[in-house]
Amino acid sequence: AAALADRDPERAHALTRRLRVDAERFGTPTALGMALGCEAALAPAEAAPALHARAVAHLEESPAQDELARARIALGLAAADRDQLHRGLRLARLCGADALAEQARAALA
């Protein structure tokens, strides 16, 4: 959905809504957190931090630690929250997510 945001925003939002409905039906913390992260990526800047925070809350209950790292870093960027950036960086390093860790490092510099 995020890849379509610039070219076809209407389709990107439709895909995000579908992902959210499917995630709610599936009901796992991983699915819900990832769906909220996609929604946050397409949301207006003022709405994104709250959506990212909800994604983090779900992913904290998930075994998908790489997705939690991604969500923490996204929340840190959206809310200018250095604590979330640091927490995401530590987790990204533990997961071996080098590109994600570099994104957090650059934001903290």
Structural account:
The protein has 109 residues and is mainly α. The chain has one domain. It is built from six helices and no strands. It starts with 8 loop residues before the first helix and ends with a helix.
**Total beta-strand segments:** 0
Q: How much β-strand is present in the residues?
A: under 5%
Quote the average pLDDT. Answer: 94
Task: Give the N-to-C terminal Cα separation.
Answer: 30 Å
Helix content: over 70%
Structural class: mainly alpha
Spatial shape: globular
* Total domain modules: 1
Largest pleated sheet = none
Report the uncertain regions: none
Q: What pattern of helices and strands is seen along the backbone? A: HHHHHH
The radius of gyration is: 13 Å
What's the number of helices? 6
Provide key terms for this protein:
globular; about 110 residues
How are the secondary structure elements laid out?
Blueprint: H1 9-26, H2 29-42, H3 48-59, H4 65-79, H5 82-95, H6 98-108
Task: Kindly summarize this structure in a few lines.
With 109 residues, the chain is an all-alpha fold. The protein has six helices and no strands.
